[in-house]
Amino acid sequence: MGSTGVRIAIDAMGGDYAPAEIVAGALRAKEELGVKILLVGDLQQIEAVIPPKTNMAGLEIVPAEEAIAMDEEPLNAVRKKRKASINVAMDLVKNNQADAIFSAGHSGAAMASALLRLGRLPGIDRPAIGTVFPTIKAGKPVLILDVGANVDCRPKFLEQFAVMGSIYSQYVLGMPEPKIGLLNIGEEDTKGNEAALRAYQLLRENTQINFSGNAEGRDVLSGEFDVIVCDGFVGNVLLKFAEAVGGVILQILREELPQGLHGQIGTAILKPNLKRVKQRMDHAEHGGALLLGVNGICFIGHGSSQAPSIFSAIRMAKEAVDNQVLQRLQSQYQILQSESD
Amino acid sequence: MGSTGVRIAIDAMGGDYAPAEIVAGALRAKEELGVKILLVGDLQQIEAVIPPKTNMAGLEIVPAEEAIAMDEEPLNAVRKKRKASINVAMDLVKNNQADAIFSAGHSGAAMASALLRLGRLPGIDRPAIGTVFPTIKAGKPVLILDVGANVDCRPKFLEQFAVMGSIYSQYVLGMPEPKIGLLNIGEEDTKGNEAALRAYQLLRENTQINFSGNAEGRDVLSGEFDVIVCDGFVGNVLLKFAEAVGGVILQILREELPQGLHGQIGTAILKPNLKRVKQRMDHAEHGGALLLGVNGICFIGHGSSQAPSIFSAIRMAKEAVDNQVLQRLQSQYQILQSESD
């Protein structure tokens, strides 16, 4: 491997369309973004999906004998299958042979592997899974975390999510002074469940972030907030609802628009515009989720990820590395720790 | 008042468009549904918005000197303003002068007034606010509760919500053997936060309901469940997100569809079909929320409710009365209590 260029380790065996779509997205990223790709997994399966005339410069295949299936209990599987692709890929980051990792496989296994092999960042109690939602304002996404790693959150976890999310929003998503919101059921500081009430106070007193108050469900897509923190239970419900609602709306459009002769003509004329509607509602543009709080840059893709999502996730990973997000997270919390000593 | 016909007390002063839209919706309901309407509020303001040639049969105006504003602290306001329209309307139900009540005003005040004046049903610890979402299956709505009354829920509250929701789904929404889901972050019974894990066991053991397991965020709109129970924190976030997402999608359609000459032509041709899309995504068809667990039939409308929503809510209230939902709820829990004695 060369000494320049961001190196991304890819779990080629993870995801519903692995390895074909994973490899396709990674190869595109290598060409368009100039990253180095380390494909981790079954040698034969990976080679079988690399097109014959592919430029192999910047591409490396790292063999891994096993893979973790979607229905395995994550912690056990990660411990027992030491040579699973997710573990081998994670070790590349640990041993500084890669700068970031991406997997569209079992997200619980990716998280367990990251925790066991990379460990947590100093000052972080619990890593969180963050994901980027598009908002009503074009080019102004919002980062939601946690969307599933921690179902019961103590208020200080939410505070840690806010600090990590703020750094990520600023240095990867390019938002200056990110506005941080606390997901809640009212705007007033007297609203919410016990955890939210206490988290509100912690966030308001934290001088490292630009806390903008409570964000209600209706504010998630308004573009008024750059980062919204919540526990992993409500975040996961929201994420899965949001992913499904796009499909519901598209089905309603498919059922209603072509009705009648004028409907069929109008729909045919509008085809390119309807395609743009679909794109704006599509999550693929925004890549995967990220695991914030472990000692490495980890991106997690949806199990159903195909090449465009893989490409987007790798682009985000490159941004994170280029902008030294890990170093910023590490130093942020060193400061915090020395302050509290 | 006659001895036949369902009598609905309406808080004519509650809501952003009160009293004009409230009265308009109520008058339509009187004509089309044959219900008797008791409009509660400021006599002059109400009379001013009743069209001159209105048939006054089945219509009564019950004066109330005060009203509760949206920014008042609900419990205090309900206690201090004894003659507020919501209190006077609630007393009509309490004194058996009305069979049900509807208010689009301060929902916290409506809830406080219901609790203070009607009290809870026997066997119910906490009333819940339920709301009906459309699903991807036409004509198959899903009832979600709680959407905001109880931010921290004990597992047995969720069980009570399930039993009440099942009765409501069967006798008002017309679902035979309603399928009950527990909102959670995975399908397996080992998933979820502490409250969800314990609620799962209670729901599985309850023989009064048809428990169909965990419902994830993606299952909310799938039509696979007839009732989904959750705590009021996550339910409220979900409700407000769902209400907003329709608007976001409509804005994307408005921005993208008319672009270019073909876009303008196609959009013009599709106008009637786009209107149907808007209608299907509109909550107005499904009326208000209901307050389940108080000793009376109470419907609560969105503050922004206009005549069509008011009409829908009154139709639902009539269904609830016609199908003796309150009596069924009362007897259900008498059985439960005698079983546990």
Q: What do these coordinates show?
A:
The structure is a homodimer of 341-residue chains. Chain A is of the alpha/beta class. The first copy, chain A, folds into two domains: 1-124 and 293-323, Isopropylmalate Dehydrogenase, CATH 3.40.718.10; 131-285, 3-Layer(aba) Sandwich (Isopropylmalate Dehydrogenase). In chain A, 45% of the residues lie in helices and 15% in strands. In chain A, strands 3-2-1-4-11-10-5-6-9-7-8 form an eleven-stranded mixed sheet, sandwiched between helices. In chain A, helix 3 (74-80) crosses helix 5, helix 4 (85-94) runs parallel beside helix 5 (107-117) and helix 6 (155-171) crosses helix 7. The two termini of chain A are 41 Å apart. Chains A, B: Pathway: Lipid metabolism; phospholipid metabolism. Chains A, B: Homodimer. Probably interacts with PlsY. Chains A, B: GO terms for molecular function: phosphate:acyl-[acyl carrier protein] acyltransferase activity.
